[in-house]
Amino acid sequence: MAPSPSWLRRVGSRVRALVVEPYQARWCLKLKDLMPEILSLYWKYGDAIDHIGPDLIKARPLGRKDGYSEWAGRQTVNAVRKFGPPSAQALEGAMVLVVPDAHAAPKQDLRRFRWLGNAIEHYGQEALRRCVPFRVVWIGDTADYHSLSSYDRGKAASWNSLYVADVESHRAAMEATRKQVSDEVWNYADKHWTEGNHEYRAVRYMQDNPELQGVLEGPWDVMQSFDIECHNYTKIVTLDGIGYCHVMQNPGTGRPVGGVNQARSMLLKGFRSMVVGHSHRYDSFTQNDLYGNPIKTLVVGCYFEHHEGYAGQGNKSWWRGLVVLENAKNGNFDEKPLRMETVQTKFGG
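User: That's the sequence. What structure does it adopt?
Assistant: Structure tokens below.
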């Protein structure tokens, strides 16, 4: 006598509950259960790996490019095979922490960099919980490099300004930041630095004195020693459809776009979403194109507490703090400015 269909269904469901589902639960990991470094590589190279296809020989070196092992590359490939490419995921956009001009210099109190490290840890952990990409963008002028200032050279203001002290203060600021961040978050974060005009002083000096290249340490050496991807001055780095650069150049003159309505001028001249620093003021502008796609431009102010003697009353017009971009995707984002007082209250512990 053949068993009834209902009996077979009961047996089948029982086998699935006892064998199949525990097996799947053990081996079929969710995307958010991936190791942070694998998840970071997935967000960064997943679409490229999907485009390459099954050729693992080409895909595996992508892990090594960022200093990860071949095993990490293989795990990233497996994640793409299992979950599909990042572009196919119905996910919230990236979380981006933008660090405005910080102007680290000798004899400064480094507490703001400790606050920055706590902020990176906080938003990195939040991005991990929400399973979204996390990026940190230093927008440039992270260090001041006053010893190479062409404006003060030969004047009393340049006395006791040493290049080696500028480099040491730059490194001390980055070390103070890194010390507050766990390895989990630091490895997960997609970290970028766009060179500012103050760091570019060192590049110009080396160009004028080529015999010193490879002898003196510079700002690029400092940032790269913390596994931060570095980008040339005025180069626009595009992440999530948003361009990041220390300054946006006027297409006609090559000079930085500025003025009272800087963000609006940037949109009218560039016709793309952009985030810049340099002016130390905060400004934003949004406008939709004819297809309904938003274009957003943002100037992020500065991240230091002291007043600069050269600016005089201009110091009072500067906005100071950090900026968080949430759900950054396809050129759109929700900006969340954090005033210096808020940063101190929230991350100063």
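The chain has a mean pLDDT of 85.
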